[in-house]
Structures
1.
Amino acid sequence: MRHEELGIGVVQFDRTFTVANAPSAVGRSGALIYVSNGASGSPCLAVSDGTVWKQVAITATTITT
């Protein structure tokens, strides 16, 4: 799971997963992935607890431009 550092403190994931094709979370404690349909069908981040992926909800708009 690679990411690209954009030089301004922003990380852009180079791969998008779905609930169906997300890799195993086992042994990946602290890993972070982008899931296009993870929060009741909406995009979210997920973090591994070493066993399963835990949803990190994306709730409010931060930047509109």
Note: The mean pLDDT is 83.
2.
Amino acid sequence: MAAPALGRHRLTVWLALRCSLPFRVAAEFTTDIVTKVSPLSVSDTVSRLTNLVTSKGMRLFAVIDQSAEAREVGLQLRDTTLVIFGSPALGTPVMEAAPLAALDLPLKVLVWAEGAQTQVSYYSPASLASRHGLGPDLAAKLAGIDVLTDALIA
């Protein structure tokens, strides 16, 4: 059976199901998501990240404790917090050139527990630039997330 004409993420899921591979294994074939290991706890990593964001003059839009939200409805979720931040001065030109980039902006970093390790995950700037057809000058406006997360885990 030929692979259907699907978007990249749907094709990964289709391949995982068709080939009887666990989704996690199939997802490793994509390079869209960067994951780094933090030496700190989830809460300490989130605190450090929000401090870095504000100290760099960026705007902190939201911090969503998804595990707390799950607890409020009687469900369990590993420590999972989404931090949403950005720079309107950098993000606005990107959204002006590619309106659908607003689906990915402001930038998001997921801080989550994987066993005893704290993971820091986000969409790679290259994948965002590719997804939205951004040229090098606009793609560069997204690249700061790599430097920021490197400083976070240092």
Note: DSSP finds eight helices and five strands in the chain.
